[in-house]
Amino acid sequence: MKWNQIPLGPLQTNCYVLSKEDNSCLIFDPGEESEKLSDYIRHNQLKPHAIILTHAHFDHIGVVEDIREEFGIPVYIHKKEADWLLDPALNGSLRYEMIKNVSGKPADYFITEEQEMTIGDFTFQILETPGHSPGSLSFYFQDSGLVIAGDALFNGSIGRTDLPFGNHNQLIKSIHDKLLILPEETIVLSGHGPATTIGQEMDSNPFLNGF
């Protein structure tokens, strides 16, 4: 399985496209610049199966509707943030004058618990990692040794918790209980910035001292 990181929009939010040898793919967090993302998919002759959201802040969902409509694929999100796709006040886009209000249609599928999920030929573990937002999810692909962690864990940092519904203690617990238990060589694909590994963050992340 291949993965590609595509930073999108003014906040350079990482969209990830995971693809197989048959060119089937999954799209995670299409936040902005639908044309750029669409061009990448079409140029590489990829066949998307689904859009999967780590959480529903505006910079991670901004072009969900464009991509869903263009490729005719379903959207997956945690049920706790189901209304965030519809409500600019919840997804945060209403807070910023320079950001267009983000409001779309309901997701097609709602995730309610941790589980193993298979979409097409992709099989992965769903991990609930709240704290940055109530319905934050991480997606662990054991066979490929990577986890898509959204805005929970970054290279040298952690997700902010000063936004509405954020909870610092909950985030630290999520990272400790769900992410740091993964093999140290696991690649962490974060919502912003470069990739890292679980081992690197255990050794040097200043927010995780004491773990």
From TrEMBL:
Top-level taxon of origin: Bacteria
SMART domains: Lactamase_B
GO molecular function, one term: metal ion binding
Pfam families xref list: Lactamase_B (PF00753)
InterPro entries per the UniProt record, alphabetical: MBL_Glyoxalase_II, Metallo-B-lactamas, RibonucZ/Hydroxyglut_hydro
Span of domain Metallo-beta-lactamase: 12-192
Alphabetically ordered keywords of this record: Hydrolase, Metal-binding, Zinc
Listed cofactors: Zn(2+)
PANTHER family, per the entry: HYDROXYACYLGLUTATHIONE HYDROLASE GLOC
Protein name (database record): MBL fold metallo-hydrolase
Organism: Cytobacillus dafuensis (Bacillus dafuensis)
